[in-house]
Design goal:
The complex is a heterodimer of chains A (about 300) and B (about 260). Chain A is mainly alpha-helical and about 300 residues long. Chain A folds into two domains: about 30-60, no CATH class; about 70-130 and about 175-305, MetI-like (MetI-like fold, Orthogonal Bundle), CATH 1.10.3720. Chain A has 13 helices and no strands. In chain A, helix 12 (about 255-265) packs antiparallel against helix 13 (about 270-305). Chain B has a single domain, classed as MetI-like (MetI-like fold, Orthogonal Bundle). In chain B, about 75% of the residues lie in helices and about 0% in strands. Chain B has 14 helices and no strands. Chain B has helices spanning about 5-30, 45-50, 55-90, 95-105, 110-125, 135-140, 140-155, 160-165, 170-180, 185-200, 205-210, 215-225, 225-245, 250-255. Classes of the chains: A mainly alpha (about 300), B mainly alpha (about 260). Chains A and B meet through helix 2, helix 4, helix 5, helix 6 and helix 8 of A and helix 1, helix 3, helix 4, helix 5 and helix 6 of B.
Chain lengths: ~300, ~260
């Protein structure tokens, strides 16, 4: 210890330290946290995972899982969920990514930049009832855009509001909160690009197009895909908007879960809700795992830069 | 800026701006329509009767109480635990981090499924108030809290601070509350903003568990009077936007959204 250059700075405490810091009673400090998260986080998770394989009497049983996996209605809802998440992740990432770039071309920290970022943080959380109202006021019966189209071309789909209740219609609604989320996630990445790269490319005679094709896009690609995976999960987990707009229980997996759960009150089968939930969690974990791998690669690259 | 960049910039801003602002404008348009379909013109009637809506004021009040409880739980339970683990139990760091990040992998709709029996028990034995939801809400914001906390803890050398406090004779409580917690102010302020936004915007859990929270009440008003419901929604969006613009902070968004599970 006497030769330790860090002596007295506190740096060594985490590794060595006196007996006081190592005392067993320190573990008591974590117990309230473990009890609380155990009840409100770990228990529900455990409940879903095990409940999927238990029948009404608590006996181990895989019949329900097999039955649901084979059901065409369940499969259809699941594919719908994957499809809408995929579509809105792509469109949200492209539009939000472009908007984030457009923000960086303006004055950084200017009033437009500030308002755009603040608006993005609000709208990224904007879902459920209020989002449904907003789109019904726009495209619904007598909405702002639909009433324009009733006058212009009464036969076009925009003059009616039926398209809003289809999968693509719901995708248009979801994209509304995907774009701002993408702006928030992707803006720091674009701001991290060094102006020197552009200068180097320019002074070597590269055109703007060459800069983007050879430098800009390759640099941004991993972060872009990472952000897209976050958007995918965001859309895949969404329940409130679909529930208030479409409200057909066989449309998306979260709606099916909601339906199975509300009928649980009437004594129906909770196992179905748990089995469907387990399927959702598996998808989310796979996507988040890929996201973590991409993030790790990006941060390693950023720190070695 | 070359003219090419300008053309790209303004067309993108125009397109995305239209996408994002049109529905908001439509809400304003809808909320100022007269109640009867055959009437013409504009009216502020819907905005005027917001204060007299049943359940609305009480649900907003309950939301604010819930947000305060969420914040208290974070301050007295989550923050001290994370600091404690960083200081004294580095072996448990990974486990605490993993627990804090679980909500990222569990969608709200799945949490409802798992927690429904628990809340049935709470409703029968403890209280039927929607404020009890603040317990599960504080779980939902764990990942955000943890990320901004651990960033702040890595930036401040808490080991030195802790040792200095102990050497000067501070008790463990004094060291935590008086020395270490104040260095985490920014993270805590961010946390309170997320707590308010989360509690005001949450629908999935409260609706499925049959609690009358702000969003559930808005949906309920929407069934009887669409104009008023739209006016309330727009007002709440503008309120949160104003709140965000008034809290000046440099890196708020980055910290809030850097949800990194790696």
């Amino acid at each position: 210890m006497s030769n330790n250059p860090n002596r007295g700075t506190g740096v060594t405490l985490s590794s060595a330290g006196s007996r006081y810091w190592k005392s067993k009673s320190a573990y008591l400090g974590v117990i309230p946290f473990l009890v609380f998260t155990g009840i409100f986080l770990l228990y529900p998770t455990w409940n879903v995972v095990t409940g999927a394989f238990q029948d009404d009497k608590g006996q181990f049983d895989t019949a329900k899982v097999k039955e649901l996996a084979a059901s065409p209605i369940v499969r259809n809802a699941f594919y719908n969920s994957l499809e809408i998440s995929f579509k809105t992740a792509i469109f949200g990432a492209i539009l939000g990514g472009l908007f984030a770039w457009a923000l960086t071309t303006g004055k950084p920290g200017g009033i437009f930049y500030k308002i755009s970022v603040a608006l993005s943080s609000v709208l990224a959380q904007f879902g459920g009832v209020m989002l449904t109202f907003a789109f019904l006021a726009t495209f619904g019966f007598n909405g702002v855009i639909s009433s324009i189209f009733v006058k212009l071309s009464p036969d076009s789909f925009l003059a009616q509001s039926a398209w809003l209740y289809t999968l693509n219609g719901l995708a248009v609604v979801y994209t509304f909160f995907q774009i701002p989320l993408m702006v928030l996630v992707f803006l720091p990445t674009i701001e991290n690009m060094k102006p020197q790269w552009r200068e180097a490319s320019d002074s070597l005679g590269g055109s703007a197009r060459e800069y983007w094709v050879r430098v800009g896009i390759p640099v941004l690609t991993p972060s872009f895909f990472g952000a897209m995976l976050l958007l995918f999960v965001n859309s895949f987990s969404a329940y409130a908007t679909a529930a208030t707009l479409v409200n057909m229980s066989d449309f998306l997996t979260p709606l099916q879960i909601g339906n199975a759960l509300s009928s649980e009150v009437g004594g129906a089968n909770p196992q179905e809700a748990k089995a469907l939930s387990l399927a959702m969690v598996i998808v989310v974990i796979i996507v988040m795992f890929i996201y973590a791998q991409i993030r790790r690669r990006v941060s390693r690259w950023e720190s070695s830069r | 800026m070359t003219w090419k960049v300008k053309v790209w910039r303004y067309s993108i801003i125009g397109l995305v701006g239209f996408y994002l602002l049109m529905p908001l404008y439509s809400m304003l348009d809808f909320s100022t329509k007269p109640f009867a379909y055959f009437q013409k013109g504009r009216t502020l009637e819907a905005w005027k009767i917001i204060p007299s809506q049943p359940d609305l004021a009480i649900s907003i009040f309950r939301s604010l109480v819930s947000a305060a409880i969420v914040m208290t739980l974070i301050l007295i339970l989550i923050v001290p635990t994370v600091v404690w683990v960083h200081l004294k139990l580095p072996k448990l760091k990974r486990i605490v981090e993993l627990i804090c990040l679980i909500p990222l992998a569990i969608p709200a709709i799945v949490i409802v499924v798992g927690i429904a029996p628990l809340y049935r028990w709470i409703s029968i034995n403890i209280s039927e108030s929607p404020i009890t939801l603040s317990l599960v809400y504080s779980m939902l914001i764990l990942p955000y809290t943890y990320r901004s906390l651990s960033a702040a803890l890595d930036a401040a050398d808490i080991h030195t601070l802790a040792e200095a406090a102990r050497t000067l004779g501070a008790s463990t409580f004094r060291m935590m509350a008086g020395v270490i917690m104040p260095t985490l102010r920014t993270g805590i302020l961010n946390g309170s903003f997320i707590a308010i936004a989360l509690v005001l915007g949450e629908f999935t859990i409260s609706n499925l568990l049959n609690f009358k929270t702000f969003q559930v009440v808005i949906a309920q008003i929407g069934r009887t009077n669409g104009n008023v419901a739209v006016a309330v929604s727009l007002a709440s969006i503008l309120f949160v936007l104003l709140l965000l613009l008034l809290i000046p902070q440099k890196n708020r968004q980055k910290e809030v959204l850097d949800v990194d599970v790696a």
